[in-house]
Amino acid sequence: MIKCRGINKWYNKDLHVLKNVDIDIKQGEIVVILGPSGSGKSTFIRTINALEDIQEGEIIVDGIPISNDIKNIERIRMETGMVFQSFNLFPHLSILKNITLSPIWVRKWPKKKAEQIAMELLERVGIPEQADKFPGQLSGGQQQRVAIARALAMQPKIMLFDEPTSALDPEMVKEVLDVMKELCHTGMTMLVVTHEMNFAREVADRIILFDQGEIIEMGTPEQLFDHPKHERTKMFLSKII
Ligand code: ADP
Ligand code: MG
């Protein structure tokens, strides 16, 4: 589903932020990305839907190469849903409109169909009663569940999550992780940057550890947590667990 070969990226020509990143991700695979702050996790995940460009290497998403061809980038963006730490809902639109906006304008669905699917998704993330409210009236956990529903409304094949629970009060983390866990069981391909180690252990097929722009180690949760091979992995885990 995702093929990354020899990715190198620099910011401002001198900050080498991604170094020879190689990874293949299968359809339906749940990959959790760990690593210290500033190690390039967000940058990496954003290269997959071309929110960040790369200077070297190749990225192919569901058979579509990322290139300067805007058509390809549009197709890849349609296939990838993204959820950010800071929700990024449109504050002046109702919850329902937040979710139906792209399906109506990009997918060209009739309003009725878009609204019906939006309501089904709100049902699925547990907050159908919030449909007519505005983002500012919802808790952080509810807003993040709307953000997930909004991404799913475009029927993506891949979901990218960049620290989706990092901005939440502790009591709201679980409600968002529960929605993500449910999604894991639907066959969705997922890439999740997170510091939630229990979530990683429970759902990840594979964990990747980033440090200073490189993939230091990758493996199953058991391999990585219980038998880490690299000193940098051990050091990272000793600080976080
Ligand atoms: P992480 O998500 O692992 O915390 P990031 O991918 O956000 O790491 O950042 C990796 C490095 O790139 C950091 O040193 C960060 O300061 C730098 N960086 C991130 N975004 C930009 C940008 N738009 N311009 C310049 N440097 C950036
Ligand atoms: Mg980040």
UniProtKB/TrEMBL annotation:
MF annotations from Gene Ontology: ABC-type amino acid transporter activity; ATP binding; ATP hydrolysis activity
Keywords: ATP-binding, Nucleotide-binding, Transport
One family name in Pfam for this protein: ABC_tran
Residue ranges constituting the ABC transporter domain according to the UniProt record: 2-237
UniProt xrefs under PANTHER family: AMINO ACID IMPORT ATP-BINDING PROTEIN (PTHR43166), PHOSPHONATES IMPORT ATP-BINDING PROTEIN PHNC (PTHR43166:SF4)
Entry similarity comment: Belongs to the ABC transporter superfamily.
Name of the protein this chain belongs to: Amino acid ABC transporter ATP-binding protein
Organismal lineage: Bacteria, Bacillati, Bacillota, Bacilli, Bacillales
